[in-house]
Every structure is written in structure tokens, then in C-alpha cells.
Amino acid sequence: MTKIRFLPHAEICPAGVEIEAEPGESIIDAALRNDVHIEHACEMSCACTTCHVILREGFDSLEPAEEKEEDLLDRAWGLEPCSRLSCQAKVADTELVVEIPKYTINLEKERH
Prior knowledge:
Blueprint: E1 2-6, E2 17-21, H1 27-33, E3 52-57, H2 67-73, E4 83-85, E5 96-99
Parallel strand pairs: 1-5
Antiparallel strand pairs: 1-2, 3-4, 3-5
């Protein structure tokens, strides 16, 4: 199992949280399974940017983003060089530190 540490986010995990994920599992699948409710308006089909996260540690352990993900990330709020869509980023064996951005491009939360 690989550890993922989510940094504090005012609404989603105010104290931050550490979870475990199976290698090959997406960041969002691991998060949702552990009650870290990352927004995902397109139902994790790589069609929006609401599940955008910033990898503060472990970014280089992930497989590179495909072109479709890169194109979508260009629209994400708060884009950084270590940004990924959590529905596309698959966990490897390296621990990750993840920041969930304060905002998404959605005007309204989907409340999944």
C-alpha cells in the first residue's frame, strides 16, 4: 500500500488526512474510498477539471499525463507544474503529498 497525505483543505479535510492506496489505483478512487470527497463533475471520465490536485511530493513517481489530460489541465484554476487530474493520476509505490486547490471551475458543487 502507498501512503497519500492530503494537506488541509477548509471544506474537504480541514485537518488534512493520510490514507493508503493500492498501486495502480487513481488518487480520486483512493480519496473517495476514504471519505475525502474531491469534486468530480464528469464522474471521473477525464472530461472536466474539477478533480484537479497539486502534487507537493511524489509527482515524478506518476506516469506522465496524456494529451487529453494536459489539454484539460490548461483550464484548471490554480494550475501549477505539478498539477494532475486525480481521476487520471495512478498511484505508484512512492508516497504522495496532495493539495486540493481552494477552487474549481464549477460554480456549484456536485455533492457526490
